[in-house]
């Protein structure tokens, strides 16, 4: 195997790139026509930049835009003969990756994403939740940052070794008051985001159960290519495993090193990031990365993949 896809939720939509793909490729316009039909949203709502004030609806808009852009780029690459040998999904990217691996029908997926606008959020009167970005130094005792000794703070996402080699980055999730208290005596807690649910933590159990209910009766197929998710270091092989990963993603710690380790086991030598993704300057990639975010990036990806697969064929791999 040579080529893997790495799919994450977009940290911010690159609307210009999405519009360029829409204008350049009929296969992208066909996809967006489908998204419009499956969700009932207008093309302007799907391709636009405006987000509704309602938090749940805004989240659904953002998720639909992010995943539609990623699937669109994957469709363009497939039309050019580039298909992944393995797919890795992180966070909401698990949903997108499941579709790219042939396990989650895109019509069912986009309907589910729109129905997620009613996902339960922390209600008024309950302790406020939040997330924080934290730099973990090489000598930091992580038990002083999260875990059983730090009440109300959970490890949400482990980014793995920092690109500069000095420790690592983590996303913390929990009660806002606990995160603020931690930040007072832990200068490594560098960002607190207010008004955000405690993603990838047990506090999101009501939301996870809601998504689970949305998936009742939805058909999931066994992945057509190796599909791994950043929840544990293993490959998902059945449709039921994929279903579980989609809803459990909300309450389980995510680990990028787990996902990369599994891709290495599958022999991935090149990672393609199709479409918009999270800000990945905190991630150390173990293999070369190609980001396909504009139509001009497609040719480079096609050329590189052809070179790799040609070399592998010559070597008898």
From TrEMBL:
InterPro entries (alphabetical): Ac_transferase_dom_sf, Acyl_transferase_dom, Acyl_Trfase/lysoPLipase, Mal-CoA-ACP_Trans/PKS_FabD
Indicate what this protein is called per its UniProt record.
[acyl-carrier-protein] S-malonyltransferase
What's its EC?
Answer: 2.3.1.39
Q: Which residues form the Malonyl-CoA:ACP transacylase (MAT) domain?
A: 18-292
User: Looking at the record's lineage, which domain of life comes first?
Assistant: Bacteria
Give the species this sequence originates from.
Actinomadura spongiicola
**What is its EC class?**
transferase
Keyword Transferase part of the UniProt annotation: yes
Q: Name one GO biological process term.
A: fatty acid biosynthetic process
Catalysis performed (reactions)? holo-[ACP] + malonyl-CoA = malonyl-[ACP] + CoA
Which keywords are on file for this protein? Acyltransferase, Transferase
Q: Which GO terms describe its molecular function?
A: [acyl-carrier-protein] S-malonyltransferase activity
Q: Where is the signal peptide?
A: none
SUPFAM superfamilies for the chain: FabD/lysophospholipase-like
- List the record's Gene Ontology CC terms alphabetically: cytosol
């Amino acid at each position: 195997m040579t080529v893997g896809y790495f799919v994450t939720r977009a940290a911010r939509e690159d609307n210009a790139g999405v519009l360029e793909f829409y204008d350049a490729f009929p296969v992208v316009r066909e996809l967006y026509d489908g998204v419009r039909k499956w969700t009932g949203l207008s093309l302007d709502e799907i391709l636009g930049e405006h987000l509704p004030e309602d938090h749940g609806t805004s989240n659904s808009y953002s998720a639909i835009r992010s995943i539609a852009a990623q699937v669109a780029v994957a469709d363009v690459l497939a039309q050019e003969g580039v298909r992944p040998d393995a797919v890795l999904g992180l966070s909401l990217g698990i949903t997108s990756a499941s579709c790219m691996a042939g396990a989650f029908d895109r019509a069912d997926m986009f309907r589910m994403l729109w129905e997620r606008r009613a996902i339960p959020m922390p209600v008024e009167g309950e302790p406020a939740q939040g997330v924080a970005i934290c730099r973990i130094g090489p000598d930091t005792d992580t038990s002083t940052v999260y875990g059983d000794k730090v009440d109300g703070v959970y490890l949400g996402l482990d980014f793995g070794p920092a690109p500069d080699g000095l420790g690592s980055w983590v996303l913390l999730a929990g009660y806002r008051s606990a995160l603020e208290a931690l930040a007072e005596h832990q200068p490594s807690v560098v960002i607190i985001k207010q008004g955000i649910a405690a993603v990838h933590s047990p506090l999101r159990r009501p939301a996870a159960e809601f998504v689970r209910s949305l998936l009742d009766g939805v058909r999931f197929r066994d992945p057509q290519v190796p599909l791994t998710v950043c929840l544990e270091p293993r490959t998902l092989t059945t449709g039921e495993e994929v279903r579980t990963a989609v809803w459990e993603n909300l309450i389980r710690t995510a680990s990028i090193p787990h996902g990369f380790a599994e891709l290495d086991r599958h022999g991935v030598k090149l990672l393609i990031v199709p479409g918009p993704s999270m800000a990945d300057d905190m991630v150390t990639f173990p293999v070369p990365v190609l980001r396909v975010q504009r139509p001009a990036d497609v040719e480079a990806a096609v050329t590189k993949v052809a070179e790799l697969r040609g070399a592998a064929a010559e070597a008898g791999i």
